Automatic annotation (TrEMBL):
InterPro entries: ComplexI_NDUFA9_subunit, NAD(P)-bd_dom, NAD(P)-bd_dom_sf. It comes from the Bacteria. Residues 5-71 form the NAD(P)-binding domain. It comes from Lentzea albidocapillata. Pfam families: NAD_binding_10 (PF13460). GO terms for molecular function: protein-containing complex binding. Gene3D superfamilies: NAD(P)-binding Rossmann-like Domain (3.40.50.720). Coiled coil: none annotated. This is NAD(P)H-binding.
Length: 181
């Protein structure tokens, strides 16, 4: 099972891990929804890892997950530190790490399945909704201002290329996650 990753070098590390895993009966890799459609360096690296897994000759399963609640919280918390919160026009489907862990465990115990349906959270949100929910729970008042994400990545996010249109949905909601904070 390969669940680690980072901004740089993940593709090299994945190829090294695959070379060390010759003879393994089932290699499980977690990726990110939009790895092949959102033009960000980190996502391109995740897609290169997927391709390396697929080309390795090792029986595999690849799961693409949406942004975890924790990552979403880090993002909105960072935005909310500013006195005026810039809110890019984009939608997210935050998923709980426990939902992903349960799905990965089930996949690891099963047979290699190739690329499996994506896993997203139970609801779709505009980023402004996620920011608003965080501000409410944190007891903060901030002016929010819509901003347009520039470039090809912005176009991809505005076009929903980071979203699971089909696939599976987790059960633990963003609101439940925030209530525990």
């Amino acid at each position: 099972m390969h669940l680690a990753g980072g901004q740089k070098g993940d593709d090299v590390a994945t190829r090294n891990l695959l070379a060390a895993c010759r003879g393994v009966r089932h290699f499980v890799y977690i990726s990110v929804i939009g790895a092949d459609t959102v033009p960000l360096a980190w996502l391109r690296t995740k897609h290169a890892c997927e391709e390396a897994v697929e080309a390795s000759g090792i029986p595999f399963t690849v799961l693409r997950a949406a942004q975890f609640h924790d990552l979403t919280l880090t993002m909105v918390r960072g935005l909310a530190k500013l006195p005026v919160v810039p809110v890019p026009g984009m939608r997210l489907q935050p998923v709980d790490a426990r939902d992903v862990a349960a799905r990965i465990a089930g996949l690891a115990l099963g047979q290699p399945a190739g690329r499996v349906p994506d896993l997203a959270g139970p609801a779709d949100f505009d980023l402004r909704e996620l920011v608003r929910d965080y501000l409410t729970v944190a007891g903060k008042r901030r002016l929010t201002v819509p901003v347009r994400l520039p470039g090809q990545a912005g176009k991809a996010y505005r076009g929903g290329r980071n979203l699971a249109l089909d696939g599976d949905r987790g059960t633990r909601t963003w609101e439940e996650f925030l209530a525990e904070r």
